[in-house]
Specification:
Layout: E1 10-14, H1 19-30, E2 34-39, H2 47-53, E3 63-67, H3 73-83, E4 87-90, H4 97-102, H5 104-125, E5 129-135, H6 159-178, E6 181-187, E7 190-191, H7 200-209, E8 214-217, E9 223-224, E10 227-228, H8 229-245, E11 249-254, E12 260-261, H9 262-273, E13 279-282, H10 297-303, H11 311-326
Parallel strand pairs: 1-2, 1-4, 2-3, 4-5, 5-6, 6-11, 7-10, 8-13
Antiparallel strand pairs: 9-12
Helix pairs in contact: 1-8, 3-5, 5-6, 7-9, 9-11
Length: 327
Amino acid sequence: MEDNDEGNVKVLVTGGAGFIGSHLCERLLLDGNTVICLDNFNDFYSPEIKRDNISNIINNPRFLLIEGDIRDLNCLSVLFRNHTPDLVVHLAAMAGVRPSLENPSLYYDVNINGTSNLLEQCRLHGVRDFVFASSSSVYGNNIKVPFSESDSVDHPISPYAYTKKTGELLCHLYYHLYGMSIVALRFFTVYGPRQRPDLAIYKFTDEIVEHHPIFVYGNGQSRRDYTYIDDIIDGVMRSISFVTKNRCYEIFNLGESQPVTLCDMIMTIENALGITAEKKTKPMQPGDVEQTYADIEKSRKYLAYDPHTDFKDGIERFIKWYLEKKK
């Protein structure tokens, strides 16, 4: 990531107090950049968790927190007018496959209208560089593995996946019509310290520590391409560098390319905790995919992306963080 004439780059990170966002804000600041963090601190999970995520950087003079919603046009207009960023990393979204089945209209409003609002503000204020957080969920139940960026993603199986696919299309529209430079990143099951408490690794760890039974959906052989947070942040930083140097619309997978079965994931957590879980089996949930598996050759070629965190090591780092937070 190259510095601009002022000595650093001003980056707007939407959802910057979340799991991925807070790690990205820290990295951007560490590299000498200015960060505008936009977050609405909604109650999808405890807002206090998100405030804690940014507690180490809240007083950094190059960090500005703006509490606002990407659906609020007035908020965005004032932000862009007063603090026009050099580029935008758009992470804010209603997340999760299963919750999107219960309230799809909220997901459409936040993830589609919110993304459209941001792109329009970029157009109006001359912001040409944009990184969009998409998701591996766009691949649906793709039979061909590993999943490649050139595969068809026209068959979403959840409202969440639909909104992420639509976000990619909106990004392409602004590239085509207005010459914006845009990279869409398809994240594959990110985990690590500060992971959202509604996600499987966190939930299973919590239940096992509390000696509660855990619910295993399906036969335990579903697979996820778990990707450690440090590898994801490295990929995002490389994407920022790429998007600022190229006039482009590109999609990149950011995964580990090492799928892990649900049974093996649980066993790895058990081994790291030294506790055996009580397991109860349930049917597969609607909207869940059988597997995710990233083809990362394009990301290796164009971003020099090179994930290297072994799943066992990543789980041990997560559990160390989790147990420290429990004290």
